[in-house]
Amino acid sequence: MRLPAGSRCCLLIACREGCDTIAPSIAMSFVENRTGSKTKRLVSLLQKGMLLLITVGILVTIFDLLTFKGLRSEHLQIANESHRWKRLSDTCSGKEPLLELVTQAVGNVSMAQAYIQDNCRALPTWKGVSNLYGPTPVILGLEHCEDFRSNLNQAKPLGGLKIAGFFNSGTNAMARTLMENLNDGKYGSRATLESTIRAQGVVTQVPWGKHRWILADELARLSQPDILPVVVVRDPYRWMQSMCKSTYTLVWDRGLANHCPNLVPSNNKEMEMNGNRSSFSVQLTQSVTSTHHSLASLWSSWYGSYFRSSSPRLIVRMEDLVFHGPELVRRLSDCVGIDRVQPFVFLTEAAKDHGRSTDLLTAIVKYGSSEGRYMSSTLGSRAGQGPTLRGEKIRGMVNETSSLLRPADISGSGPERQTTGHDPIKPTKKRNLTLDDFQQSSQSGFPPATVLLALSTIILLACGLRYYPTSQQQRQVSVAFLGNSMFYFNDFPRFLVELSDNGIRQDSCLHGGASIPSLVQQGNGMFPQFQTPAAIYAQSSDGSPIFDYGACSAKMLLTGTSIYTPEQYERFNETDGMVKNPCREDLVFTSYIEKYYATNKPNWDYILINDNTRNPARGSTRQASLQTLQHFYIPWLHKTGATPVFLWTHAYSVESTPKRNMTGLDDVANFTSLTGAGYRAYAEFLQAHLPPTQKPRIAPSGLAFLTVYEENLEMWKKLFHNADHLHASPHGTFLQGCVVYHTLFGKMPDRDVVIRRDMGSLWATARMMQHSWEPPNPMLHERDATYLYDVAERVMNGHVPETYIEYNRGEVADTGDDS
After folding, report:
1. What region, left, alpha or beta, does residue 126 occupy, with left being phi > 0 and alpha being psi -120 to 50 degrees?
2. Is 539 in contact with 591 (CB distance < 8 Å)?
3. Amino acid 350: pLDDT
4. What residues form the membrane-spanning segments (predicted)?
5. Which of 56, 70, 232, 732 suits a disulfide with 719, CB 3.0-4.6 Å?
6. What confidence tier does 130 reach under pLDDT thresholds 50, 70, 90?
């Protein structure tokens, strides 16, 4: 816990030493008298008094807790199975609607009674909840329902409702609740959100990605007549605190994350550290990086697009899902005209299995109280200053009697991408914690001795620490991808971002069928494959969408210099016949990307490279790649200072590729072994020409695939795309991703983050999974993911497949025409 400087000063007498900041006058007085015997005796008595105070606090706390629990057990009753509450203790008075809600959610009277007996004191009053959120749910946009309903195909899953909302806003809870309750619950599956029902064509989020910041005009172009977005809004003050705990893709510059969720500097030192700007800016990375003046500004800009949009959309509050769930879902189902489950199915467990999440009963206690919303740390410590969030309509989303939202004009332009400047926040009177707050805490369910013990413990901890650590923002690792369809199938760059829990920032230059030499010559080939809604990340001045194709060339990606285009461009056709350079085909993108790299020079930690799969195994193509590495990559790597990482790609069977020349590569184990020998040759060559800090690495995905081939042939078949048996399926991409992650970070990704009920959510931002004319692959189950995770971990810990051959004398495959 971080104490204000003034508070630490006041603790000096009790601390003697260890308080890092003291008022000069108090410090001088203490130093002058420190050697006196009277002072020493006084300090000794104070120390003994502190220990006595803490001991008494502990004993009284235990007594209070036992007494309160006994009173609750004695006075609280549940009348009968009809959930009617006949007799309530004073502790539960005024909470009857919440008691009924808990009973319905638990679904078992005995279990509900046990919970209420232990927790009734902690539950908020219904009056308090109504003061915060009103007596009924709030939904904006219901005026669109009639037109939408009249044109809707009733067979559309969930009535066309699709979820959108920023990180930490309750989108998973909303999606799972709709799955359980709409369409008579036929799409509901308590074990998963999307993965097991993807085959039925049900996707719960909007096509452009539920978390993506989308401009209002862009939303109008992307809107579809059979999709009605449901935008989930969360109380911005609690949301800001959650974003500090789970930051996802947010980054504070100048190491200011330890001030989160402060919005304004609190002293001259912080002001100077912040470049004399009036607010702590924050960067949001979603394909590209946008800079916002503060967390409040980001909240306003993100949701402002949906508020300003004239396109049909519904805007709901996350808190209404907690306190008015049945009524909220009833209104949504009536809006689109589809059936719902009776009685209402509550989502009682945590809605997401990654990051931080809250179950329903905890949410009732947490969100039913205003405590925690108004803490001064949210606003900054400067007296008389704090943020206002823009939004005339936003004001209607939260009851004015208890909200800190202030009326303003939401139509005011939000921060542009890559902007800087002063925060458009206005001074307002903030609320600091006072002794009255501790009094209120006691009256609302915390025994007085608990507060006494807490204060004593704070003093003790403050005296024992020289500084007060706070959570540090983990810097994102930047990774550039240079390769072919082994990267763009299942959008491996964006997948790796999700696998790393947004610990990676990426960009790429990809070209189907490319080799190391051809990628340098021909550059990007992702037009039009990446012309998908999920790939849109900005819009031009005339309203045209700007797609995230990646950099136009390898040179641009690594050095940021002007676009490299060969004098004579050739279409490179391997599997799709559609590969074109977007910088030749999309002039809007070309103009944007030139301006972007003119002001944003690349800064890469790692450069992930793969060759055409067969090329490292063959003599002539291996040599051509080595020459390209020598003449192009070595100078680029010296300039960037980045570490090169080669993806040792997987082998595929001869039977799966009858049209390809597989001479000398007709055995999976030998194919894998020769490919590895080629990548080792690449790495050793670069190592001889780079400083030790840039020692190349190899991500042995091929060894992981070969391990599965030896252990589980049926699982090995699942690793491949079902349309060509060559590219990776989601199973294969997951295995490859675990190997690459370990190669970059020296450890496996967090198992609790990457193995989840909804494995499909790892691809929530994918620009494409496979070619548009090909059928989708089955999504892997968490059981398969667990096995593949373990395979990757074993390989990265030194496991070598039995059939692997260690080639180390320059061996190559038998000669073919290398096609």
Report:
1. alpha
2. no
3. 56
4. 50-68
5. 732
6. confident
